[in-house]
Amino acid sequence: MSTRSNTVSRIARRAALSLTAAAVIAGGGLGAASAASASATVSGNAPALVLTSSTASSAATTARKESTVARKESTVARKESTVARKESTVARKESTVLRKESTVLRKESTVQRKESTIARKESTVLRKESTIARKESTVARKESTVARKESGTAEKER
Predict the structure, then answer these.
(1) If you ran DSSP here, which 8-state letter would residue 43 be given?
(2) Which H or E run contains 36?
(3) Residue 52: other Cβ atoms inside 10 A
(4) Is the full-model pTM beyond 0.70?
(5) CA–CA separation, 92 vs 86, rounded Å?
(6) Is 51 helix (H, G, I), strand (E, B) or coil?
(7) For site-directed labelling of 27, which of 78, 143, 153, 156 has its Cα 20 to 30 A away?
């Protein structure tokens, strides 16, 4: 008998909580929850539902707490989303900076290569000018030798 009455009480409590929750969810507020709430009692073998305000208050508190938890979870999710967005922005900006630095390095490398080419060409020009000067010096020496010989030949002829 005691097991049966415990089972009946448990079923009645569940029904009362369901009624209370339904009233709160339906938007009737605490007044509707108080009117709809019930607690289980057993008189003899027949379960009876008795209206109570404590069950409604308990259900309303539970609903309020669940709502608060859901709101806080939503806030946390929003903040995490904001952090992720900001991190993405930072990563994008860092990528842009790296790309620009790479471009600068490439341009500097191009400038150095062109300067190296110019220096090589100038070196080639200087080498050619040196060769020309050496050849002109050789020609002048030979002309001087020829002139000296001609001068010596002319004196001998006199």
Answers:
(1) E
(2) helix 29-36
(3) 16
(4) no
(5) 10
(6) coil
(7) 78
